[in-house]
Amino acid sequence: MPALALYLFFFVYPVVQAVQYSLTDWDGYSADYADVGLRNFTRLATGDDTFANAVGNNLKLTVTVVLAQTALGLLLALWLVRTTRASTLLRAVFFLPTVLSSVSVAFVWRFVYDPDGGLLNSTLRAVGLDSLQSVYLGNPDSAVFWLALTQVWFHAGQMMVVFIAGLQAIPKELYEAAELDGAGRFARFRYVTWPLVAPATAIVIAYTTVQSFKAFDLVLGLAGNPPNPALDILSTRIYTTFSNNQFGYAAAQSLVFMALIALVTWVQRRAIGRATR
Questions:
Q1: Of the four, 133, 151, 169, 200, which is 20 to 30 A from 117 by CA?
Q2: Which domains does the chain possess?
Q3: Domain ABC transmembrane type-1: where (predicted)?
Q4: Max mean pLDDT range (151-165, 171-185, 211-225)
Q5: CA pair distance 60, 147, nearest whole angstrom
Q6: pTM: predicted TM-score of the whole model, two decimal places
């Protein structure tokens, strides 16, 4: 019963309040506000290019991060699954970024991407590749990619640990039997490793998806507030709307955000369920 009460108070009640405010033009301060019906949602669907841009950026970020982080985490796990002194040291090295705060990670990579004196452009100038220099976080065509690279660097070590746990749970007898049957390395991975590491893969994909939607602090640390349109994602767009005292409209955005996460989660669970049958 206490758990149910906490759930109702901290989740159900705020959602109900958000629904109520999303139907108003409340500015967050005044006691007087008008009911506007579904006008906020109509505006989201038809007349808000900034919100549509944030949705597109967030979906691109999610797809890129999920694919890259899952692949890199699995590759690192396959490489370091055997416990040796060297692999133990390398695991610690790859896991180290995970223990850092997202703000410190953002500031480190902000220096790397700085177009004037940043590490990337300085290195390119030093080796005579000036033509490859870029305004990384200000380029609308590639800014999301650089944000994704930062997030993959930040969390890949954590995904590696999840995959290592999954790989170590696979009985060695299965590999020995497959080898006796003449299965090569790729065949053993396809028919033994990949199916049995599917539960770990599901965890990684779900966690990575959540992280890509929670990249608020990473974006603000990299690009400032408000971020440029190339890096604007749903959480920063909602924050900006709240900051502009459009609480009713921000509540509508938050509900759409929640519905989008629920939809993505449902699609993922369906796809993972089919893949693991």
A1: 151
A2: 51-171+203-250 (1.10.3720.10)
A3: 55-268
A4: 151-165
A5: 11
A6: 0.86
